């Protein structure tokens, strides 16, 4: 049986995503409760429904101080149901940054599956929910944003699909609200083509919730280090561009001054040529005067 399991941090939009996927019309209500939950996650135990032969499982957020153990048990319960599983992690960003807690959750769940000998590489997907316009632009670029994200996720196992869901203002603080139809259609289409992992019914996994804090801190450090390196690379690139610009300016100035001295030289040559013409004319004039004077004095023609 096809089985969609949704996992992610509290409040990331797991239940809203599932409501979009299970295809119930907006006016018939939402099978999965969603909404604002201040102290801990709204979904606190496994909730599973079957629509048109597909099972959908909603799980509580793993990084939840109150319900960590329950969340781990719910994820294990969902896996125990087995099937042709499409595993979907729903995550959000923090001011354009990936959060360590998301990577920790993904790592813990994938490790648990891998330990039970379930092939996970390239078989799980990530929904990036509540993306701002800027986040969509930065992370949506397949050559930069998506590649960085894939490399970060790939440290645990290669990710199949990355689905970006734009932030919907109408959903802020809303209870049991639905994504717009276009988003619902896109999510359904994406999930239809997602890779699956085969999980035998009754498979037991051990979700190590006790690792959440350590792994979150580990990923926070790794992400901060990666940001620092990216920042340094950016500054280096900027310095290099600045140096190239300065060298170009200097070359341009040199060329201009060479051009100016070439023009000066041309001017000098032109003046010398003019002086030569004047001298020639003067010489010719003087010659004529001498010839006339010689004729008058000596009555002999002198040809100069
Ligand atoms: N602005 C905005 N809000 C969203 C979006 N998706 C979900 N929400 C809101 O975020 C809140 C939490 O959504 P849920 O779907 O309940 O999140 P969850 O991951 O199931 O939360 P828990 O069950 O508490 O772990 C709700 O008020 C939703 O209306 C989105 O794309 N944009
Ligand atoms: Mg929920």
TrEMBL record:
Coiled-coil features, chain-numbered ranges: 216-243
**Which InterPro entries does the record cross-reference, listed alphabetically?**
GTP-bd, P-loop_NTPase
| Entry superkingdom | Eukaryota
Q: Does the keyword Coiled coil apply?
A: yes
According to the UniProt entry, its GO molecular function terms are: GTP binding
Q: Which Gene3D superfamilies match?
A: P-loop containing nucleotide triphosphate hydrolases
- List residues of the G domain: 4-92
Q: What is this protein called?
A: G domain-containing protein
Swiss-Prot/TrEMBL keywords = Coiled coil
């Amino acid at each position: 049986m096809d089985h969609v399991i949704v996992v992610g941090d509290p409040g990331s939009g797991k239940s809203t995503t599932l409501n979009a996927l299970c295809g119930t019309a907006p006016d018939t209500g939402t099978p999965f409760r969603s909404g604002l939950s201040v102290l801990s996650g709204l979904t606190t135990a496994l909730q599973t429904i079957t629509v048109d032969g597909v099972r959908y499982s909603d799980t509580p957020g793993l990084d939840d101080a109150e319900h960590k153990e329950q969340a781990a048990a719910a994820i294990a319960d969902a896996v125990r149901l087995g099937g042709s599983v499409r595993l979907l992690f729903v995550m959000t960003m923090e001011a354009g940054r990936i959060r360590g807690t998301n990577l920790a959750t993904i790592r813990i769940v994938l490790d648990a599956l891998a330990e039970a000998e379930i092939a996970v590489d390239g078989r799980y997907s990530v929904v990036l929910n509540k993306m701002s316009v800027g986040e969509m632009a930065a992370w949506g670029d397949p050559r930069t944003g998506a590649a960085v994200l894939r490399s970060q996720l790939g440290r645990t196992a290669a990710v199949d699909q990355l689905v970006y869901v734009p932030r919907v203002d109408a959903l802020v603080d809303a209870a049991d609200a639905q994504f717009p139809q276009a988003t619902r259609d896109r999510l359904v289409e994406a999930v239809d083509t997602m890779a699956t992992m085969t999980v035998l019914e009754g498979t037991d996994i051990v979700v190590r919730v006790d690792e959440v804090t350590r792994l979150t801190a580990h990923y926070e450090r790794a992400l901060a280090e990666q940001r620092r390196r990216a920042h340094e690379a950016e500054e280096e690139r900027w310095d290099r561009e600045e140096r190239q610009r300065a060298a170009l300016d200097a070359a341009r100035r040199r060329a201009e001054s060479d051009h100016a001295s070439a023009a000066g030289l041309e001017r000098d040559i032109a003046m010398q040529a003019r002086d030569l013409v004047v001298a020639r004319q003067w010489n010719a004039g003087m010659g004529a005067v001498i010839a006339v004077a010689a004729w008058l004095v000596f009555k002999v023609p002198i040809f100069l």
